[in-house]
């Protein structure tokens, strides 16, 4: 039986993209776990993983004295909450009517699709009255089609209007105009050459075996990678597709 390319069907879909949902539901389901992982940063119990992490850090106390015999003034500070905005044009742009930044613009301008991380800080000096302030925590790359992306929930027709492909699936980032995927570092090493976990460990740690910060995290990376059940270079490359 000959291959069926469905050329006319695809051409018709390109010219008249669906106005309700993607024509490739299975591909959408395949990407959904990646988008869900990013959404978990700001969604879920206790305000998402970002706020869970903030609560885990708790309050910190520092003293300003350089004299070992006295502590000096006491500063107690904590992060009350963290929120992640949606990509917008910078405040210096006074001309744009539509303040939203779309992925297509970032590709054309060779910029990053990112948004502001905003933190609410509270502090007190010498156990005095507590004060609060909202501060800018920098920019964070935004995953396409996530809950912080302007393409979220857009129909294929709306995606085309936003200068995207009608079957845009998301699940990746745009950094300096280049589309990037997040891949486990160990998986990349396994795909480059036939190597064992021991070779990777020895190659990275080398003589720095007393550095527990390095060894503990490298061991965690190697143990976490086991769940992929990929044991050779060919298996890893096949997983990449």
UniProtKB/TrEMBL annotation:
BP term (GO), one: DNA-templated transcription
Compartment(s) of residence: Nucleus
EC code: 2.7.7.6
Residue numbers spanned by region Disordered: 1-21
The RNA polymerase beta subunit protrusion domain, residue ranges: 30-201
Cell inner membrane keyword on record: no
Pfam families linked to this entry: RNA_pol_Rpb2_1 (PF04563)
Domain of life: Eukaryota
GO molecular function: DNA binding; DNA-directed RNA polymerase activity; ribonucleoside binding
Catalytic class of the enzyme: transferase
Basic and acidic residues bias spans: 7-21
Keywords tagged on the record: DNA-directed RNA polymerase, Nucleotidyltransferase, Nucleus, Transcription, Transferase
GO terms for cellular component: DNA-directed RNA polymerase complex; nucleus
Signal peptide extent: none
Family stated for the protein in its record: Belongs to the RNA polymerase beta chain family.
PANTHER family in UniProt: DNA-DIRECTED RNA POLYMERASE I SUBUNIT 2
Protein name as catalogued: DNA-directed RNA polymerase
């Amino acid at each position: 039986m000959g291959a069926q390319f469905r050329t006319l069907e695809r051409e018709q879909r390109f010219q008249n993209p669906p106005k309700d949902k993607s024509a490739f539901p299975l591909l959408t389901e395949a990407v959904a776990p990646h988008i869900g992982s990013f959404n978990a940063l700001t969604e879920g119990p206790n305000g998402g993983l970002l706020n869970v992490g903030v609560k885990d850090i708790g309050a910190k106390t520092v003293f300003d004295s350089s004299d070992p015999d006295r502590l000096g003034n006491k500063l107690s500070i904590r992060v009350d909450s963290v929120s992640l905005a949606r990509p917008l044009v910078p405040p210096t742009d006074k001309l744009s009517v539509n303040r939203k930044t779309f992925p297509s613009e970032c590709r054309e301008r060779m910029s990053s699709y990112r948004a502001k991380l905003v933190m609410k800080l509270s502090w007190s000096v010498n156990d005095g009255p507590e004060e609060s302030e909202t501060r800018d925590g920098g920019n964070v790359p935004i995953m396409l089609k996530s809950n912080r992306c302007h393409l979220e929930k857009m129909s294929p027709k709306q995606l085309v209007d936003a200068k995207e492909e009608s079957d845009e699936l998301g699940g990746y980032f745009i950094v300096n105009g280049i589309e990037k995927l997040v891949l486990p570092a160990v998986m990349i090493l396994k795909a480059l050459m036939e190597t064992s976990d021991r070779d990777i460990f020895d190659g990275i740690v080398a003589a720095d075996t007393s550095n527990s910060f390095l060894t503990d995290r490298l061991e965690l990376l190697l143990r976490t990678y086991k769940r992929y059940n990929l044991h050779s270079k060919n298996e890893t490359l096949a997983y990449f597709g």
